[in-house]
């Protein structure tokens, strides 16, 4: 099953058949909303609006662990994340799509791991995005002839306020390409859950650094997003179809991310923690 996490402005997924909204609960609590299940061609989809329908939950209060655990519990193996971002580069104007391949995580007020005292794990994050999934997204954007760039660094800020001018200039000096508030710890948790994860960033604004463009506002973000919603939906359809027929998926390294990650000696593992983690790490805990 393919998981779609819809960001700002993307609160449903039209065009599916056999649809239903289902409740999910996880050992970390409930996700942002019910999950929308349905079929699109040969693909089974599970869609979760990241902020809940109507955009109720701000980035710092999202239960990222519950969102990822809920998708995993439904049988999701690949997660396509859709996000609104500000651009930190002149050559990435609003309306452009970026297939993100790196992150700088500047968030500080979020739970970032399923693991902890009693069962410690360290997964690799050098390549935070599934290259196979990123390739499918790149091909789909090309086929749709949408303005896009393959590869880019997404700076994840805590928010909810937008950046100061000094911060925006700093992130540009760090060679970041786009800025948003949500893809971390989402990508880290997907890796811990052994899910293939990739993010498509839809540029909605030039943040606040650009000398001849207005500073970002929610209105401007939503205006650009709504103008691109149909493109995003077509992208989901193309990528889902490619994934449904991808024979390489089972061999993907993301799906074995926990092979060498657990460090707590089996004899001193907390049994309650081990129990809680069955849905996430059961493959290596049995
Ligand atoms: C509505 S502008 C700020 C908001 O939009 C982005 O969210 P998402 O990644 O879910 O599309 C950004 O990260 C902020 O949360
Ligand atoms: N400029 C910006 N900063 C942070 N998050 C955003 N989401 C969309 N535009 C953004």
Automatic annotation (TrEMBL):
The record marks 163, 218 as: Important for substrate specificity. It is an enzyme of class 2 (transferase). PROSITE patterns: PNP_MTAP_2. Substrate binds at residues 181, 205-207. The keyword Ion transport does not apply. Keywords: Glycosyltransferase, Purine salvage, Transferase. Pathway: Amino-acid biosynthesis; L-methionine biosynthesis via salvage pathway; S-methyl-5-thio-alpha-D-ribose 1-phosphate from S-methyl-5'-thioadenosine (phosphorylase route): step 1/1. Residues 2-239 form the Nucleoside phosphorylase domain. Phosphate binds at residues 8, 50-51, 83-84, 182. Its EC number is 2.4.2.28. It catalyses: S-methyl-5'-thioadenosine + phosphate = 5-(methylsulfanyl)-alpha-D-ribose 1-phosphate + adenine. SUPFAM superfamilies: Purine and uridine phosphorylases (SSF53167). InterPro entries: MTAP, Nucleoside_phosphorylase_d, Nucleoside_phosphorylase_sf, Purine_phosphorylase-2_CS. It comes from the Bacteria. Pfam families: PNP_UDP_1. Belongs to the PNP/MTAP phosphorylase family. MTAP subfamily. Homohexamer. Dimer of a homotrimer. Catalyzes the reversible phosphorylation of S-methyl-5'-thioadenosine (MTA) to adenine and 5-methylthioribose-1-phosphate. Involved in the breakdown of MTA, a major by-product of polyamine biosynthesis. Responsible for the first step in the methionine salvage pathway after MTA has been generated from S-adenosylmethionine. Has broad substrate specificity with 6-aminopurine nucleosides as preferred substrates. This is S-methyl-5'-thioadenosine phosphorylase. The lineage of its organism: Bacteria, Pseudomonadati, Pseudomonadota, Betaproteobacteria, Burkholderiales.
